[in-house]
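In practice, a research group might receive sequence data for several interacting partners and want a quick structural hypothesis before committing to experiments. The following worked case mirrors that situation: the sequences arrive first, and a predicted assembly follows.
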Amino acid sequence: MNLKNYIDFYALLQSHKPSREENRAFGLEIEDVNYSPFKQILLWVQKYEGRLKKPLLSQQIGSYLYGLTLTLAILAFLLGLFSGMGLLSYSGHEPVNVIYFLAMVVLLPLLTMILTFFSMLKAGSSHSFLVHISPAFWMERVLQLLPKKVQHTLKELPLTPQLTNWMLIKRSQLLALLFSLGLLVSLLGMVTTKDIAFAWSTTLQVSPQEFHSYLLSIAFAWRDLFPWAVPSLELIEQSQYFRLGENLDMSMIQNASKLGEWWKFLAFTTLFYAIFLRFTLWLFTQWGFRYALLKSFLSLEGSTTLLREMNEPIISTASPKEEQLFTSHEKQYGMQIAKLNSSYDVTLGWAMSSSELTVLNDTMQVTSKDVFEVGGANSLSEDSAIIAKSQGNVLFYVKSWEPPTMDFVDFLEELVIQVEHVTLTPRGTSNEKYIATQKELEMWGRKLETLHLKKVWLKI
Amino acid sequence: MTSMHPTFAVVGHPNKGKSSIVSTLAFDDSVQISDTPGTTTKKRSFPLTVDGKVLYELFDTPGFQRARRVLAWLEKHEVPASKKHEVVLAFIEAHKDDERFNDEVQLLEPIMAGAGIIYVVDGSKPYGEEYEAEMEILRWTGQPSMALINHIGESDYSQEWKRALGHYFKMVRTFNPMLATFSQHLLLLESMAQLKEEWIAPVNHSIDLFKAYHEQMFERSANAIAKLMYKSLSHVEQFALTQDDASKEEREQIEERYQVVLRGLEQTSQKQIEQIWNHHHLEKEQESLTFEGVDLFSKESASLFGLTRKELLITGATGGAMTGAGIDLMFGGGTFLLGSTIGAVLGGSSAFFGFNELSDVKVLGKSLGTNYLEMGPMKNINFAYILLNRTLFHTTKIASHSHALREIVQLKMGRTFTEKWMDDTLRKSLEKYHTLFRSKDEVKAEVLSEYEVLIKDVLKHLID
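A structural hypothesis for the assembly, expressed as tokens:
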């Protein structure tokens, strides 16, 4: 798991997202890891990263970040090296005060490590001032002033504050580690190439015995294993130095070779406090960064949907085929009448009983020579016989709510051959007082419009 | 060839709501529903699939058009009851290329392939003898069948329908696709399973899956709502300033942009919710999100190295204090934290007073500082509830909206809607999250999940 996977994941979600079906199929393929959403995502990224355009965004950003870290690392190492050389610069006139160096390799690392610890606790906050005071933060900001296209892309990346903070904390530790390595290298280099006389000097009232006990406390981690790397009380006494009068103590000059022995203690102090502890912290920040990265993977927009798509079965109820589009004829039927005649040659009723037809005629104040029920339970031959008997003007009742079926259309087409005039009268239910609704009349009109029968009039 | 899974053919007279029933049962609003007869001309399959595996299949079919002619053809063949289905098969074979019987062939094909029959009638209109030919044809097929009384209109003729249908079907049920709830939907499926003993287990399995599917819909809706709330409340609109002070036009411009973004977020979320509930073709009318009474304040801000003046001040003061603390430590605490205090004051004041000067410094033609106008995150506490109310109302409407309805959905929220779902305890719980969304802090995925659970409970309360 690394930043590359995260950026590839982001890029895939942005522009190359597979379909839901593909995701589910892959989810089933890797069902044995469905207990770990993170593993599922990683495998998904591995499967689909080939779809990403080259050069990969992760490669661009990765190489930028690598370059940035390398530049800062070299600067930190050089800074450490030159700081060490400055602290250990020795002209031969005065001994080198070990307190400065100790402050640099004990106090500074401890202080910054405490700050790091607190900034780790607050790493989730988007305004962590503890991160803002990190030199790495400022070095990075200054380098960002250099014009580079990738910086714009980097700003677009959805890096959570937690992830950004951990990236900075991790980088700070690496830079501090390299700074300390620079210090150690300068110490070893100076010790090898120069005869440095170390001493200790302070304005504070500190006796050699007290100073010895401080140093023993500092050396708690190695004093039993490597006692030769802890200055003896005798050495401490011999190397106490006062600058007043600019005269060196004679005993110091006599024991000049012994004064160099301090380097072992300084080297071990650097190794333990500035390097070992920092390295341990750096390892810890690696873990913190991985944790933040893991969280970021899962909180990235689209990741929840992806996991859902991989883990939830696709339940579909819709038709796989598109329906053929039906277009209705909105044109109004032209042959409409508003009033029925007072008499007709024949009255027909589609799927209506004779008694119903009689009631209807009475209601409409219409008389008719013959009244026949057609359709409904009639056989086709019975209907044909009625058509044969029909002639002249025909009043034809239909149930307004029943749509005209092709069975009805067949009958009507046969009927118009035989008769002169058909008045089609849709009637409503008895509850509706036999009055057809406008919608129903429109439905009948639309159907008649498609039939082009010149003898059929619609009673509206 | 018969299917391995249960299949059901929804058949009947034209315009009796077959497509509406299928549309509702299949949660599919793409089915054409019209009061013009003959809208459905081809049978259409609606399979319930889980990961591509069909559990059961529904067929929407055209209505009977020439039922009497078909029945006449069948009755010409005098065969014992055990052979009647063969006559129906012979009819299909003889007329599959005959345009006149296209609809009958389309509706009989799935039945003869083993589908259970669901015969649909309109219980709001009187029974008529013309239906008997249709029911007789279905009897000839020999397939298990049930009748479903749909209620398209307001009148009720269901008693006379039940008496008539009872002669042809063992099971008669009432189902209104426009008003059916999810549980009524499941009850109907249970009834359908009774048509054949071997269908009971697969249909019951389908019912369980439907429940899971329904649960998924709630979860996904809650997820969409939670995201909308988070994005809307936390949104910050920034506008780079060319001059030191923002003009009136620039202030108006940022306010408009802010509102457009928030409206856009709401629309996207609504579309997403409609997709979740399978309303892909829905049309709606709704008042757009207004900001009346919601005071929106824009403020000018500046940053240096990505830090605001306040952040830089804190950073400077902390850095100074830390340096001073180092000096204090070197003196073994004898300085009584004077080093830290002086360091903090020096660091803080340098950062504060040097902010403007440093901002104007140009490196490689680029200013170190940036001036911008900013609006958001939303400060108004009530806005969250306005938005949440709207989105919950929309989701409730969509989730309860029948897939058979085709008219424009009117989203008019009554004044009492809030009372239906919110009480003081819930408000307090919600406010905790809204406050977090409004802060500029990162909201962790697990916090959003907690909020989602809360929203899901509200949705279940409103919809179920």
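Before designing any experiment, note the following. Chain B touches chain A through 81 residues (CB under 8 Å). Residues 197-234 of chain B form the longest helix (38 residues).
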